[in-house]
Design a protein that fits this description.
Radius of gyration: 16 Å
Shape: globular
Number of helices: 9
Helix content: 40-55%
Mean pLDDT: 87
Structural class: alpha/beta
Low-confidence stretches: none
Number of domains: 1
Largest sheet: 7 strands, mixed
């Protein structure tokens, strides 16, 4: 049931200068996920205040450390400060759908999976654009080669991680290459995982921030030189 309230799951949202949208993202997500921790990664706007007003727990980095560092802080919070059985990594800009996250948690429960990766490429709903798709294909090929995994989408920020696996994660790549590092550490754990088809929403807001292609090129660059 994708509409079931997920009381033992926490959303972990890295947050950096998303003031225009984060309040709405948190408010909508809390209808299904009442427990949300936003890690404000040194924002210069009012992102943290808006997230807190919408009902999220907010942990603050005094300076910008990068998305990988923010995720690790959020993972540590859930593992050490809560009894949550699952955590869901979730973007702050409105690109991820709450119903996909809930369905992924349901899959993890039903199939006894330690991780579920959201994939934009298991069906045709997500329009990534030709160039972004090609860059991400190269990136996933490189990640699969280094990790021994066989994913279709290694750099989608929507993931479900069970508590026993979260306790093992130790991210040291602070910037975009953290996504490959997560895959490698999950592969090394030997715990069961699966992919799930998700619909990523590339909004006017996210595209205006240059996320359509720029982030994909950053991912590829960091994979080459990490």
């Amino acid at each position: 049931m994708t509409d079931t309230v997920q009381r033992d799951a926490w959303l972990v949202i890295p947050l950096y200068n998303e003031g225009p949208v984060i309040g709405t993202v948190v408010e909508e997500a809390r209808r299904t996920f009442p427990h949300i921790v936003c890690v404000d990664d040194g924002s210069s706007d009012d992102s943290a205040d808006r997230a807190e007003a919408a009902g999220a727990v907010v942990v603050r980095h005094p300076i910008n450390l990068g998305q990988g560092a923010a995720l690790q802080t959020g993972i540590d919070y859930v593992v050490h400060q809560t009894a949550g059985e699952f955590l869901v990594t979730f973007d702050a800009d409105g690109q991820h759908r709450v119903e996909d996250a809930a369905a992924m948690v349901g899959k993890a429960r039903q199939e006894d999976l330690a991780a579920v990766f959201g994939s934009r490429f298991l069906d045709g709903r997500t329009d990534t654009g030709w160039l972004k798709r090609q860059v991400l294909r190269v990136a996933v090929t490189m990640t699969n080669w280094s990790s021994g995994m066989k994913l279709t989408d290694a750099h989608n920020g929507l993931r479900v991680i069970r508590r026993d696996l979260a306790e093992r994660l130790d991210l040291t790549q602070n910037r975009m290459a953290h996504a490959s590092e997560i895959v490698e550490q999950i592969g090394d754990s030997g715990l069961p995982w699966a992919e799930y088809p998700v619909h990523v929403l590339y909004t006017d807001y996210s595209r205006s921030k240059g996320q359509s292609v720029f982030n994909s090129v950053n991912i590829l660059t960091e994979l080459l030189f990490k």
